[in-house]
Each structure stands twice: as structure tokens, then as C-alpha cells.
Amino acid sequence: DIEIQAGRYSECFGSQLLPGMVCPPIFIVPKPHSSKKYCLVNDHSAGAHSPNSFILVEEGHMCPGGLLDFGHCLR
């Protein structure tokens, strides 16, 4: 509910996906050094129709440099 109120996730729209929609698996893992906090993981590479599977290999790469290079990628 907190994530929905913050605008990070949408409310449930039912069990039937609309055309063109995919539903990647999500799960939680414990945060390091904490027994009560968890990280939400969205697996965008799982399944035959995963969001990442639609990115062409020759177009979906980057050469990581530093924060300055990363900032230029965001523009």
C-alpha cells in the first residue's frame, strides 16, 4: 500500500493481462544485516517474453565508466 501511494506501483487491475503486457516475477530477499527488512526484486530476465528479451543484444549494451559517464547516459 505504501508503494502504491508513493506512485511506484499500480493498483491491481485483475488477473488477466491486457495485450502487450507482461508480468515478470517479483520476490523478496532479506536485506544484509537485518532480519526484519527486505528488498523487492523484479526479475526482468525470467521467461520467454521477459522485458529484457525484447532488447537486441547489439543495441542493449553500455561500457561502464564512472558516475560522470553514467550521468551522460541518463540525459
- Major beta sheet summary: 2 strands, antiparallel
Which word captures the global form?
A: extended
Q: What structural class results from the helix and strand content?
A: alpha+beta
Helix content: 10-25%
Kindly report the average pLDDT value: 83
Give the number of DSSP strands.
Answer: 2
Strands of the largest sheet, in order across it?
Answer: 1-2
Poorly predicted runs: none
Strand and helix order: HEEH
Provide the β-strand percentage band. 5-15%
Distance between the termini: 32 Å
The radius of gyration over CA amounts to 17 Å
Can you count the helices?
2
Account of the protein in words:
The chain has a domain of 34 residues. A two-stranded antiparallel sheet has the order 1-2. With 75 residues, it is an alpha+beta fold. It is extended and about 40 Å long. The longest helix has 8 residues. Strand 1 and strand 2 form a beta hairpin. The chain contains 2 helices and 2 strands.
Quickly describe the structure.
The protein has 2 helices and 2 strands, in the order H-E-E-H. It is α+β, with helices and mostly antiparallel strands.
